[in-house]
Amino acid sequence: MKLDLRQFFRACNPAKTIDVGNPEERKYYINFSQVRGGTLIEQIARTISRLSPDSPTCQLFTGHIGSGKSTELLRLKAELEQQEFHVVYFESSKDLDMADVDITDILLAIARQVSESVESMNIKLNPTGFKNLIQGLLDVINTQINVKAELAIPGLSEPGEFSLTVGIGKLTAKAKDSRDLRSLLRQYLEPRTNNILEAINQELLLPAIQQLKQQGKAGLVVIIDNLDRIMNSKSATGRPQPEYLFIDRGDQLNQLQCHVVYTIPIGLIFSSDLGRLTSRFASEPKTLPMVPVKFPDGTPYPEGIEHLRKMVMVRAFPAIDLNNYTHLITKVFDSAETLDRLCIMSGGHVRTLLALLYSCLQQEDPPIVRSILENVIRQRCHQLLLAISSEEWQLLRQVAQTKKIMGLREYQTLLRSLWVFEYRHEDEYWFDINPVIAEANQFNLIDL
């Protein structure tokens, strides 16, 4: 079997998310649920399709940066579509400024994405409430900012059919690039949040669901990805954005009359307000951990390493029989030990594994030799060490000893920086040092 270098290079791009719903990309997908300690996506799908097929559900999904959340959510989309649900999946970061997000921003993004999706299904909407809302917004904007020509919306104050997608899209696109305009929108929209929710439910979601069911669909599911990227900056209330949006205003996010899956910042799991978060959504957040490569005592975890091996090899040979691939390893690496070294040093963090592999491929064509991999690991180590202070080395020491992280402060310091990873095996949970850091001289000099 011949290695297609161009295809392999593209498949290893760490910025690329696998869309399981696409047959060309599905062949690269490896299901890690067996070694991650739980079938999280199956649980979310089951809640939607079996436990509450006709009642709205609202579920929370989180995980560490680069752990594969988007890939898993696209798998959820594909599985629900096979069950005849109409699924609207979108990356909220394309609509929102993650450093400055308010509740109405999220609601309008959902309304725009859903309206655009259902309009493509020839579903007719009569959003008179939204039309009045947008007209009121333009009246306010045009008295203070000269954007009238750029925000001219057909069917609003001139002849033509009004499109909710176009109306909201023009407003949100302009607002994303203008803090002044966002401020004006929020001043107008915030007191009307309940009216917006009412309009979304009565003029968009419920009519859409009714017409979708007439087309043979089981219902409507909205998956909002990338909300976990919301920055920890202060909101207008003084609260960090994640706590303000999902805890203080979570009851409003939970009022949409369809199935909804929100991604949330993982820091909320370490917050003292976790109980309030769970109460707001009546649901425990589901967290996607890393793929374990070692047990807490440091002994290798063969099943986890094997799944990572397959992830690498299937990118090299998409048509490979994953039960019989070992004879092809030397077409990609100088030895099986080099492949294992790559998997172990990734710490089971999918994006790190791909980033290390991609860096190797940028330096030489396969078979990748051990010296190139070690050079890439050293470069990665150097980058990570630059930001670690003496106080943070002490926090790393504590994690190495206890395999635990205690509280939001340690999360902000260690996990967001990818210095520490979270793992699960069966009913056991633990944290451990990023293997790249664990091998550094500075770490080894700490008195463990």
UniProtKB/TrEMBL annotation:
It comes from the Bacteria. It holds the Pfam family KAP_NTPase. SUPFAM superfamilies: P-loop containing nucleoside triphosphate hydrolases (SSF52540). Residues 41-233 form the KAP NTPase domain. InterPro entries: KAP_P-loop, P-loop_NTPase. Coiled coil: none annotated. This is KAP NTPase domain-containing protein. It comes from Limnospira maxima CS-328.
